[in-house]
Amino acid sequence: MKVSNNTPEWVTDLVTRVCNDNNRGLPGELKCVIMKDRKCSSGTTHVSKLRSGKKSRQLYTWKNGKLKMDRGKITLRLGSSKIDAEHVVLHEIAHWIDNRVGYCGHHSRFYKIVFRLHETYSADMKWAYCREGRYKKTSIAVFENRFAEKHNVELMTPQEMRSYISKEVG
Predict the structure, then answer these.
(1) Does the first or last residue of the chain, that is N or C, have fewer Cβ atoms within 10 Å of its Cβ?
(2) What DSSP assignment string belongs to 87-138?
(3) Structural domain range at position 157
């Protein structure tokens, strides 16, 4: 895996550990851009896909990032909030793990992976619930059905989620 010079060691370690633990090869490239003037982070994952012997490109969007299925590369724009940066790393790795021919994006299977990764590699399930819940209703349903009670996370309205995230990252 080619890693950009300014990629924090904890990011490289987390990507390597998660990929190894989930029997998924490492992406060809891991690039980080440190954005000291922003607290929130965002990311992009590019994954390889061939359909009928031809390269197929599909574009899916995620907040400030985009998922383009054409090569193995994860690009992260990390803000100053460590908890948010960790979340974005796990979100993008979930795309990498979920890569399957014909479809990739934000769906219930993907969110099961996201929350399972948070359960295993992060201590803050409430953060994961709020951060993902601000973006897609599918994530809320998956979390509430499979993870909320197990992790004793009180269910919230979208406004309460936004408020919780704003308090943490400003």
Answers:
(1) C
(2) HHHHHHHHHHHH-BTTB-SSSHHHHHHHHHHHHHH-S-HHHHHHHHHTT-HH
(3) 2-169
